[in-house]
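FORM 7B - TANDEM STRUCTURE REPORT

SECTION 1: FIRST PROTEIN
SEQUENCE AND TOKENS:
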Amino acid sequence: SSELLREHFASTLPCCVGVRNVEVKQRQLSAPTVNSPGCEFEYDVTVFERSNVAASDVAAAARRTLYRVQLDDAFLEPLSIKDLTVGTTLVPSPLLPPLPPPPSSPPSTPPPLEVVVRLVISPTASGGAGPGTRRALQGRLPLSANSILAYLLSSALPRGVSQRDVSVIAVPRSRSRLLQSTADASDFDYVVSIFVRGDVPAETIVDTVSSNDFEQGLADSIDEPLAVSDAIQEVAVVPSPFLPPSSPPDPPALPPPPSTPPPLEDVVQTDIDCTTTAGRRILQSGVALSVSSIRAYVAARLPSISERDISVAAARRNRGRRLQDSSSGEAAADDPCDFTYKVDIFVRGTVPTADLLSITSSSNFSAELDAFIAEPVGVSDVIQEVSVVPSPFRPPLFP
């Protein structure tokens, strides 16, 4: 609507433009270019130069690619800016001359505006592991907002930038408004905002994210080819999830204690499948095949591993649908042999990764599992990977 567009431009254009200096007029289109509800109108936006913000600064901000992406993402309808000009016009009657500037805030009050460095990380057209290749590139993370954030917080940014000062938002690249849960990760651009709140100057952050080493490190961490663009410094309104810094400012960040786990962890992964789907063997002493029975066997076979460090999930073979581990188990109508059971064992205790690989790859492990489960099962694809710590598993407590 005209009112929402007016509020959007007043809040996102350079500081002090003000909503009363923005005029939006709605016009009916005789032949809409997009056949979608709400797209039968065109909107003429006029920004009056009445404060210390020059018209050239407003025009430059509206021409930026990042600003156009933010405008398109703010509304349900697909929007774009065209015919951007700077000129002179009569003052319309609803808009009164500007009021005197408001008094400045007290020194102890944090300002409502902050300096922010923004950049756009976009998948490139060539290469890439593609969806569904869970273990194609060992040591690299699948593309997502969380994996980009993990790379930024590892060692990519200058020391002194806090986690609460970094935001990563996935913006759909097409106008179809694809849902994050169903779209491929390469269908999104990832807008990174780094708020300048500590002792690290904005120029240092801009130089860091614009360097070749930053882009090469990103390529070494993510399993999709990526490009970094539009690294700019601007003044933005403080977003609600990020509170202004307290006074006095936070002390310089210290290295984590030795017992604190990193955001990435070693994990031993293996697949468990039925060896045949015809003529299932039912043993009197065997336990029915399920996520919970496999988890119980692995926990009993590895007594030195905490049960919370073992994750088992069932993935349907024909459609790849993943059923998460839950107390309710699988639906009664599902044949347990229709699934592949993916086991993740996180290396967090005193048992080294090599020992876990040796145990899970041994013939005894597979034979005892086959004897424990009623259906004939086998173990395959035992590998070691570096994975992001999943949310249900908190890092271990201090001794």
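SECTION 2: SECOND PROTEIN
SEQUENCE AND TOKENS:
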Amino acid sequence: MAVAPYTVLRERAGRPRGASRGFAFTAATVILVIVVGAIVGDRLRESRSFNAGSPAAANGDCGAQTSQRDSTGHLVGVSKDTTTILVLPLSVARPEVDTWFDWYMTSAPGTAPLDVYAEYGDGSRIPPTLVMQTGPDRFLVRLAFPKSGCWRLHAERAGGTLSGDIWLQVLAAGATASADYANADCSATSRRDATGRLIGTTGDSTAILVSAPPDLRAGAEITFAWYMTSGGLASPFTVYAQYGDGSRVTPRSIETVGPDDFRVHLAFPKPGCWRLHSERIGGKLSGDVWLQVLPSR
């Protein structure tokens, strides 16, 4: 066996130990860059696929890419992980008007925030104007689309470790909408308190509680016991009901019962999902309740 000369052994022994550690650090850095590059590349390929290769980039029509609906009318999200995404549009999506969504997306814990954006085929994005949690894994999301065409609605929870997409066709003004939004059941969109009153969704300090009969039928006048606070200020109370196609009806009459209590008499002309919007202090306080109105007998 050959023996290394003494001078060679001395040179090897004299090398700093940090050299090997430096090599290990450099190797780890290279591996990290490769991993991050792969993730970014995957995201870029997804984005390019949507922006350049999808029907949205060609003519603004989602076509077959439009998300499928389940038996209850929810759009079914596409995800690469364990999350489940079900999105119920509460109105027809049209440009420059508010479109509301009942958004279900699972996560552990169920209280994790929901992050959403909408992306057009040209890569432009818009954030929601409201995201409000209404229960474990359930949210109300409001979006105002600036133009018609195919939009990808991207949602994330748990810091982005859970994510998925919905493809939605936003109709041009005057375009005929399908009946899907009318057939969708929004009876569970608004939560109820312990006494059965519907809890209003608000973005301010007001509290809204609405008592409604269990059987709501189109064409029949319904009386609602409506509680809406105004911070101790005496102020008018206004209400309207909006259908998924944007049409509205106003109450026949509103009776003042107390400072924050009112009796609202309202008839719905057709069955389906209705948003009941109420305001006080000239609209500075406002909120919404969703109701499912059944066909007339």
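SECTION 3: OBSERVATIONS ON SECOND PROTEIN
The domain at 198-293 is CATH 2.60.40.10 (Immunoglobulin-like).
Helices lie at 6-14, 18-53, 55-59, 180-183.

SECTION 4: SIGNATURE
Preparer initials: ____
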